[in-house]
Amino acid sequence: MRPTRLEKPPANRDDWRTIRSLLPYLWEFKGRVILALTLLVMAKLATVAVPLVLKEIIDALDQPRAMLVLPVLLLAGYGLLRLSSTLFGELRDAVFAKVTQRAIRRVAIKVFGHLHALSLRFHLERQTGGVSRDIERGTRGISFLLNFMLFNILPTLLEIGLVAVILLSRYNVWFSIIIFATLAAYIVLTLVITEWRMIFRRTMNDMDSKANTQAIDSLLNYETVKYFNNESWEAQRYDEHMQKWEVAAVRNQTSLAALNSVQSAIIAIGATLLLLLAAEGVIDGSMTLGDLVLVNAFMLQLYMPLHFLGFVYREIKHSLADMEKMFKLLAENEEIKDKPDATELIPGDTAVRFEGVNFSYEPNRQILFNVDFYIPAGRNVAVVGHSGSGKSTLARLLFRFYDVTAGRILINDQDIRNVTQKSLREIVGIVPQDTVLFNDSVYYNIAYGRPDANREEIFEAARAAHIHDFIESLPDKYEATVGERGLKLSGGEKQRVAIARAILKNPKILIFDEATSALDSKSEKAIQAELKRIAVNRTTLTIAHRLSTIADADQILVMEKGSIIERGTHRELLAVNGTYAHMWELQQQEEQTRLQLSGNGEDSHNPPP
Fold first, then answer.
1. What's 513's DSSP letter?
2. CATH of domain 15-331
3. What is the pLDDT of residues 459-480, one digit of tens each?
4. Strand arrangement of the beta sheet that strand 352-362 belongs to
5. Is pTM beyond 0.70 here?
6. What is the rounded CA–CA span in Å between residue 568 and residue 566?
């Protein structure tokens, strides 16, 4: 195995830009934010007042016995201030909780919505496991960032300012010099070393996302892993990412230990110098014993939060690193967007026209070349051709998953780039070749075609797709779960669920993308008749491999290498004796051979229904 090394970390994002992007979410609850900040100030004022009262108590008790009086009011005030500093802090957290949780919710839904708004191109290239982990870490980082930046860094800075004013006004200037020198050394050291350490955190995040992506991809393809006996190979691939994560995590932890040690040394030196200065003042009479206690208390109040401030700064930097990839997702460009002046599509008779359409997935790989055809309202146009000829690309363009490179697609003379995507997709339904279902009930997956449909409409759609009886035979009937990507169902069963879903949607334009490819001959004939029934009076684009299923189409387009090379009815194309006629002859021979084998009692190797 190659020696493990740290990969180059992702480029650093502008941290202030990240922080500024959160401000709108804070101002959604202006009143709560202002109240929380007010409680924060009151808590810190109470905290700073505690040593001052403690000094007066010590000085009151540091008297000859004859003059000694119990300072009841001071003791009561001391207790009240202690309670106030804690109480105001807890009230502040309670008031601000809704602000934090709402910000997390708003950002999460914004990222989720943005991901759905991105083009199919992005989703074909995405790594689901890594994306989900990036969002999870990013939303968690928001909570930490908001709470600790507002309620740890700001209060500590406020406390440092208040203590500095008190010390400057009451004591030798050297007290302030020592405190500020210690603070400066501590802060500079923390900033420099923390920035250096961020390479390890970013590498940890990167390796964590990659490991999670590989793990989820492997689990989703569990059967393939088993087919090829590659469990150890998958474990090795996973471990390669985890090894790099381990190296970064160890370096992260050891550098943290070194940073904490140096920070503690700086604080210890500063505290010792302050106590020496205060003790000398008590001896020469310029300070009382209460002053010594006051300086010591202020020192503890400053240095303990300061020590925590180092931790908070590190964690805030970690949170910003965690949020980097999530905000990078938000920065991802929406390739397909509604124009500012986009209008609602007027369905009308829903005639479809492709005019001189050229299309490329990549600049150097053109898929469609000057594709031109017309589907009159209520008619069925079929597209056939070998794999890779560009048939399924037509469906993706009609749904506007991509925009054409040249030419245009019209529905009732309206360029689909000028109408809203929502209104376009409301009138288009599809039965795809590769049906992927949600890991939910059969009922949910059928109802997804029209979520507001009632139960009887869903049952009727299932009957039309010839799957109702099968569902009723299941132990849980319509509540039976279909598994991840529908793996609990056979290919034919998934296809019929997809057909039911399309029937339920009741679209004006239908796309059948090899809709019966997973069915056996008997089921195919039954469902083919049903598809013809639901396609009546609907504009239909049928993408087919089996030519027998589209022989009665109003027009058949034959595609090859992205171009239409033949067009006409079934009879016209057979008469031409070209590519279509050759394909028809081959498929008829295959069907004849299959029937002969079936007649001899041999397995026809049809896929299960």
1. E
2. 1.20.1560.10
3. 888 888 888 888 888 888 888 8
4. 365-375, 352-362, 406-411, 414-415
5. no
6. 7
